[in-house]
Design a protein that fits this description.
Strand order of the largest sheet: 1-2-3
Distance between the termini: 59 Å
Helix content: 40-55%
CATH topology of the largest domain: hpI Integrase, Chain A
Order of helices and strands: EEEHHHHHHHHEEEHHHHHHHHH
CATH architecture of the largest domain: Orthogonal Bundle
Number of strands: 6
Shape: extended
Length: about 400
C-alpha cells in the first residue's frame, strides 16, 4: 500500500497516486490532493476486503482521475495557429518580435483566415513576388524575403508535427547575393563612439565598445549578468547556437563591464535605443546610404581584425560562437591587410601605399615601407591573446560536420 507523488516525463504533476494490493490483487487511483489520496486509499482497502475477489486478469481497475482542464481546441486557421504557437517558438528569443511579425506579413498576402490544411505550394509561389514588392521602399531583398519565408515555414512545421497540416508546401528559396562583409575602420570606430558620447548615449557607446572588442551578438551582450564575469573572462550560457562559450576580455571591455555592474550591465538597454542612436550617428557620419553599416557590423569588425592579425580560424570560430567553420571562413577572404602582406612576402615590388577605397572594408592606406612595425604590432597582439586564452578553453574539437564543410 502506498501513496506517492505523480510524475509525467520525470516532472511532478501536482497529483498523487494511490496503490493498494492484497493477495495478488491491486487497485490504483489518482487524486488531486494528499487528503483525497488518503481517503481514496481507505476506500480501496475496504473494496479489497469486502468486494468480490478479482482474478489475475482483472486486478487493475480504471484509475480515478482528478478533474482535468478541457482540452484546447485545435486551431483551424493559420492565424489561430500563430497565436497558439508564437510564445512556444519565439518567446524569450532574439526573434520574439520579428518572427511573428514576419509571419503576419506573409498572412496578409496568403489570407489571415486561410485554413491550415488548405495552404498549398501554389500559395507560397504567389506569396514570394508579393513579399518582394511590398517592402518599406517598395521592394525587399532576396535575403529579407527568405527571412519571412523561414518564419512561415517554422510555423507550418509546427502545424504538421501536431497533424493540423497533412503535407508541407514546397518553398522555393530565393538566391541571395553574396554581399561584401562590412566592418568598421578604426577612424569610423573613433567617430562613432565620439558621436554617441556627444548625444549623452553613454550606455550605447559602452555597448559598442564591448561589441567591437568581443564580437558578441547583441542578445548575448544584453544577456550578460554580473556572475558571468570572472576575472578577464565573460561566460555566455544562452547563445544563438545553444552552445555556452567563454570569451577573454580586452582591458577596455573589462573596464566597461566592471563600471556598469552596479547599473545592471546592459540588461535594461533596449535594442530600439541602440538602433536609434546608431542611425543618428550613421547619418552624421554621412553613411546613411551604406546598407552594410548596421549594428551587426561590429561583430564583423571583431572577426576581420582577428583575421588581419593572422589568428587561426578555429580560434575565431570559437570566440564568435559560429556553429560551423564555413561561417568563419567568410572572413578569410575579406582582409586587405592579409592580401597585401602576402604580396609583400613574395619579394616583388608593390606600391608603397594604397589609396583608400570603400570605407569599412575597402583597402585602407597601409604603408608597406614599414613592415617591421606592422609585424611587431601583430606579434604584440598575439602575445596578448595567448596570455588571455588557453588552448583547452578556447579551441574546440573539430567535429565531423566542420570537417565535411
Amino acid at each position: 500500500m502506498a501513496i506517492y507523488a505523480d510524475k509525467k516525463h520525470g516532472k511532478l504533476t501536482g497529483q498523487f497516486r494511490v496503490e493498494v494490493q492484497r493477495e495478488g490483487q491491486r487497485l490504483r487511483a489518482r487524486c488531486a490532493s494528499l487528503p483525497d489520496a488518503k481517503a481514496k486509499e481507505a476506500e480501496l482497502k475496504q473494496m479489497l476486503l469486502d468486494g468480490p475477489q478479482l482474478t489475475q486478469d482483472s486486478q487493475v481497475i480504471p484509475e480515478a482521475h482528478a478533474p482535468s482542464k478541457k482540452p484546447t481546441a485545435a486551431p483551424e486557421t493559420i492565424l489561430e495557429a500563430l497565436k497558439k504557437a508564437q510564445d512556444q517558438m519565439w518567446g524569450g528569443k532574439s526573434l520574439e518580435i520579428a518572427g511573428p511579425t514576419q509571419v503576419r506579413e506573409c498572412l496578409k498576402h496568403i489570407g489571415m483566415d486561410k485554413r491550415i490544411d488548405e495552404i498549398k505550394t501554389e500559395d507560397i509561389d504567389d506569396l514570394i513576388p508579393k513579399l518582394a514588392s511590398s517592402g518599406k521602399n517598395g521592394s525587399r531583398s532576396d535575403a529579407t524575403v527568405n527571412r519571412h519565408l523561414s518564419a512561415l515555414n517554422k510555423l507550418l512545421k509546427w502545424c504538421k508535427q501536431r497533424r493540423y497540416l497533412s503535407e508541407l508546401p514546397t518553398i522555393e528559396w530565393q538566391d541571395e547575393e553574396t554581399h561584401r562583409i562590412r566592418w568598421l575602420t578604426h577612424d569610423e570606430e573613433d567617430q562613432l563612439l565620439d558621436l554617441l558620447e556627444s548625444y549623452g548615449a553613454h550606455d550605447v557607446a559602452d555597448f559598442c565598445r564591448v561589441a567591437l572588442d568581443t564580437g558578441m551578438r547583441k542578445s548575448e551582450i544584453r544577456g550578460i549578468e554580473t556572475q558571468d564575469i570572472q576575472g578577464v573572462w565573460v561566460h555566455l550560457w544562452k547563445t544563438k547556437t545553444n552552445k555556452p562559450r567563454s570569451i577573454p576580455l580586452t582591458d577596455r571591455a573589462l573596464e566597461v563591464l566592471q563600471s556598469r555592474m552596479d547599473t545592471g550591465l546592459f540588461g535594461n538597454l533596449h535594442i530600439e535605443r541602440i538602433r536609434h542612436f546608431w542611425n543618428k550617428a550613421k547619418r552624421e557620419m554621412g553613411l546613411q546610404n551604406d546598407e552594410g553599416f548596421v549594428v551587426h557590423a561590429m561583430r564583423h569588425t571583431r572577426a576581420t581584425r582577428l583575421v588581419e592579425q593572422g589568428e587561426n580560424l578555429m580560434i575565431i570560430k570559437q570566440l564568435l560562437g559560429h556553429s560551423t567553420i564555413v561561417t568563419t571562413q567568410r572572413y578569410a577572404h575579406v582582409s586587405d591587410q592579409s592580401l597585401l602582406n602576402a604580396i609583400r612576402h613574395t619579394g616583388h615590388e608593390v606600391l608603397s601605399s594604397v589609396v583608400a577605397g570603400e570605407s569599412g572594408g575597402g583597402i585602407r592606406g597601409i604603408d608597406l615601407r614599414t613592415p617591421a612595425a606592422t609585424h611587431a604590432d601583430t606579434e604584440e597582439k598575439h602575445r596578448y591573446i595567448n596570455h588571455l586564452t588557453k588552448p583547452a578553453d578556447v579551441v574546440e574539437q573539430v567535429d565531423t560536420q566542420d570537417l565535411k564543410s
